[in-house]
Specification:
The structure is a homodimer.
Chain A: H1 9-28, H2 35-41, H3 46-50, H4 56-75, H5 81-93, H6 95-107, H7 116-139, H8 149-169, H9 177-186
Chain B binds a DNA duplex (18 and 18 nucleotides) through helix 1 and helix 3.
Chain lengths: ~200, ~200
DNA sequence: GTCTATACGACGATAGAC
DNA sequence: GTCTATCGTCGTATAGAC
């Protein structure tokens, strides 16, 4: 055991940088936030920071990945409306990160973009999880079978993503309501189903 | 009538610039496309181009506005699913402009951003139009009244916007299907309703 | 009003010393 | 692993020709 962990300190520093970047982006938005500012917050020069990342876009992509993972850990991968509510409520507290997410999604359309793999994996996984939830409700007879679960999953995610655009413009927009509305529409039996 | 139009030639040139920028963004995406490149395409120097716009973001915002207007003129403001289909099919042909739209929506969250007024006006107008369409269907008994029309309008627009994010990552995603699915779910009477 | 030339500051990125 | 120094390019600002 001559070597303890591949990078030991390096990994810690990388995590510290990502955390600092996340804080800054959450506070000021990521637009107009330079890497030099992030570096300064970490007590580093710009090249010192760039030692840990291939490019700015690469750092941004990793910030998003970390963000996604912490959110996921906290909600234990349930993929149901309740975990959605918690995610959306925290999003509403950090507009800068919502802006980051949307901007990155746009940029990640380019397959060469550092964040492309993240989204390319994230969406199918998310759809599968939501589809599983939908199938559970179908089995309970609480969702109409008119549209198959995988298409419903895509639809639900589209609503959740799309409402963020309207919220970014008008912060009084309720980001939870549309998904709840859609679930209500899907549920033919509506009312309280005791046991 | 001593003065013919406020700027006559200037307005024409401005339009030419916007058209050129739209073409470039559609072809190469707007990321990594510099204003100098746009200026060159118009046979102008950079400052020559900037004579017509307050800033890069201002130009971008106007590109988006022009894009919106041409789409609107062509579809005569109907706000129904058929006009939506036409819009979405053209969007699928110009990924760069979809990317531009999404990125601008993210940036326009800042009230000081040049594109903020555009979105701040666009969404309410769009919602009203879609809500009107929804009310029409409700009157025909072709939409469940469980969720009020204005909330349904917001929901429909969220779907349309949100599916674009998934499409940007995976271009094989069907951008029309989710809205059709939602309308199908909303319609209790489904089948062909002859007269 | 329209446009060129020039320059400025800040950015992300890289080379090479320590 | 981190620095100083430097590079090329970006958006922007100003001066002034026509």
């Amino acid at each position: 055991m001559a070597k303890r962990g591949p990078y030991e300190k390096g990994e810690a520093k990388r995590g510290e940088i990502l955390h600092a970047a996340l804080e800054i982006f959450a506070a000021e938005g990521y637009r107009g936030t330079s890497l030099r500012k992030v570096a300064a917050k970490c007590g580093l020069s710009l090249p010192g920071l760039m030692h840990y990342f291939d490019s700015k876009e690469d750092l941004l992509a990793q910030v998003l990945r970390v963000r996604d993972e912490t959110a996921r850990v906290r909600q234990v991968e349930r993929g149901d409306p309740q975990s959605y509510r918690e995610i959306i409520r925290e999003a509403a507290r950090t507009p800068g990160l919502v802006e980051l997410f949307v901007s990155m999604a746009a940029a990640a359309g380019d397959p060469a973009h550092p964040a492309h793999p993240h989204f390319a994996e994230r969406y199918p996984v998310l759809r599968d999880r939501v589809a599983a939830f939908v199938r559970g409700r179908v089995d309970e007879g609480r969702i109409s079978t008119l549209v198959p679960p995988d298409r419903l999953a895509l639809l639900l995610i589209a609503v959740a993503d799309g409402v963020q655009l309207q919220w970014l413009i008008d912060r009084s927009t309720d980001m939870e309501q549309p998904v709840e509305d859609l679930l209500a529409i899907l549920d033919p039996g509506q009312g309280p189903e005791a046991s």
